[in-house]
Amino acid sequence: MSKKKKKDGKGRLSYKGRLEITRSGLGYVVVEGMEKDILIKRENVGNALNGDEVRVEIPEHGRKFGSRPEGKIVEVLRRKQNEFSGVLEVKPHFAFVVTDSDKMPVDIYIPLDLLNGAKNGDHVMARIVEWTGNKNPVGEVISVMTHEAASDVAMKSILAENGFPLHFPDDVMEEAARYPEGVDNKEAKKRRDMRGTLTFTIDPVDARDFDDAISYKPLKNGNFELGVHIADVSFYIEPDSALDKEAYLRATSVYLPDRVLPMLPERLSNELCSLRPNEDKYTFSAIFEINKQGKIKDYWLGRTVIRSQRRYTYEEVQEVIEGADDTHKEVLMLVNEMAQNLRKARFKKGAINFSSQEVRFKLDENGKPIGIVIKESKEAHQLVEECMLLANRTVAEYVSGITVKDKPVPFPYRVHDVPDESKLGLFMAFAARFGYKFDMETPEGIAQSFNEMLRKVQGKPEQHVLESLGIRTMSKAVYTTDNIGHYGLGFKDYCHFTSPIRRYPDVMVHRVLQECLDEKIKPVKHMEAQCRHCSDQERRAMEAERTANKYKQVEYMADYVGEEFDAVISGVAAFGFWAETVAHKCEGMVALHDLRDIDDFEWQEGEYALVGYHTGLRFAMGDKVKVRVVSANLEKRQIDYSLAEVPQQSHSDGAPKYKKDKGNKPKQGGGKPKSKSKNKRF
């Protein structure tokens, strides 16, 4: 991505990068390895859109905008978004779609022979088929959404905005339909047959794609065998086939509150590859021999055939762990004990124990949220998690020890870098105010300090703010061939092996692993570029999921306008603070201008707080407040709160005191903060 070259002797340099367009219309091309982004003025953006991968040219000794080089987009290499929702307007000789998204600056021209039955005024989804020069893009209608609920249209639009196609091409569907049901005896004989071993799946109650299973078998030497079996998706997907290309393009399934957009057609994801009970299935397995103390004595990796005897939900397994009876209670308890031992060992070796909460919406038959459930990770979840982590780590360790011509095998590791020093320094200074100290001597010392803080902070007023800010100091996990290890998990080698139905990197891992087992390794030349694409798609999927969750939050809170709720301040900026309701985890903004009747407030950036000039009243991250729902705007996906009660605070709480002399008073209305830093959320 960062490679540059001169163009035809004309003194121009060419780069490839990702375009980011600001609200003002200015664009910036982010080039990997380049310190400064390339500025693109409106007139030089061409027909590129926000998020597109583009080629940009800059004069070798050309103009600069401040310290930034200035360039021009000369080619769109890959569109982030190719499908748009909007209203169809049909004229006598042509039609066009006025898109819902403000990210598409022009209408989409639709030839009359590409209307596909849509009529004037219909709400449609259109796909761009051609876009050259400065002309309007040419598109086709792929579906009509006129009679669908607003929420359904919004979810589809969110997926399209993030570049995920809503439909599979015909050739992909035809290819998926060709595969026969069941297991072929000839193929089964090539595999380790595990169909006689007790095997079960553990998944969410509403899951339809079961891509992992666990097996248990006692051994004559007193040890036991634990099998982690993963759907063998790579058996069905031939490299470079239409199915493979589409799976790679998507790279991940996307999970929204009311639907799943799968990476693979349902024929594969929910039928052939899903490890449903009482059906023979092809799997790729990691099988471990474990002693009574929970120590791993040996392992085996390879292709298998299994038959799951039981489908458990997390809730069912948790009930067994907490005392309920079950046919396989003894096995579940033994595997859970092993998982808890693995978990303790991970944290002892440096894994960081950030707690996590999952917010799920209860939906009515129309997809409208009627309730919110906050789920925490319990031992049943941890049982599955530790088994999957063990398999992922073992596969990565095995491949990392193999070389081809004295070079490591190109492999999609899942890595997590150490925290950024500048972010960590700011966080440490803030945590020190609450009495928490960090050992900065080694990465292991930092991890231990985090765990010590997370343990001590439980139940204390500062828990929310320190957990939130601590997570934000962490680097983002990515896929890469550069095996730098996984800092957060405390693993030297790690990969994703256990979810090939919903993640393309797992398919890549299966292929390389089989080549290593067969000793017929064919290194993939562009593995790093594939890793980068998968990381990009993962970020887009997360953005779609966040946006969809926000939409459902707004939709839910629209029924509670005027009502009051207990909340916790989740972010602070110069223009107000964000608050998250305790009961529903729904976040909204309390704007600074709504606090004018209380005091003039100044943003104290290092304090993560707004501080009253006269009263010393503080609104800081982690503080408890009572808010009133003012509005819930679905179009903007935004909830506005107002303060329902003024907190009773005094200067004795450590809030800074301010002199009331005229010279230091902020401008009336709580206007601008004195800090010159840009408004930003923490």
Structure characteristics:
682 residues, alpha+beta, OB fold (Dihydrolipoamide Acetyltransferase, E2P), seven-stranded mixed beta sheet, six-stranded antiparallel beta sheet, 14 helices, 26% helix, 29% strand, disordered N terminus, disordered C terminus
Description:
With 682 residues, the protein is α+β, with helices and mostly antiparallel strands. Among the domains are: 5-78, OB fold (Dihydrolipoamide Acetyltransferase, E2P), CATH 2.40.50; 174-412 and 498-544, no CATH class; 561-664, Beta Barrel (OB fold (Dihydrolipoamide Acetyltransferase, E2P)), CATH 2.40.50. The chain is 26% helix and 29% strand. The strands form 10 sheets. The chain has a 7-stranded mixed sheet. Strands 1, 2, 3, 4, 5 and 8 form a 6-stranded antiparallel sheet that branches. A 5-stranded antiparallel sheet has the order 11-10-9-12-13. Helix 1 packs antiparallel against helix 14 and helix 8 (329-348) packs across helix 9. Mean pLDDT is 88; it is low at 1-6 and 650-682.
Give a brief rundown of this model.
By secondary structure, the protein is an alpha+beta fold. Helices cover 26% and strands 29% of the residues.
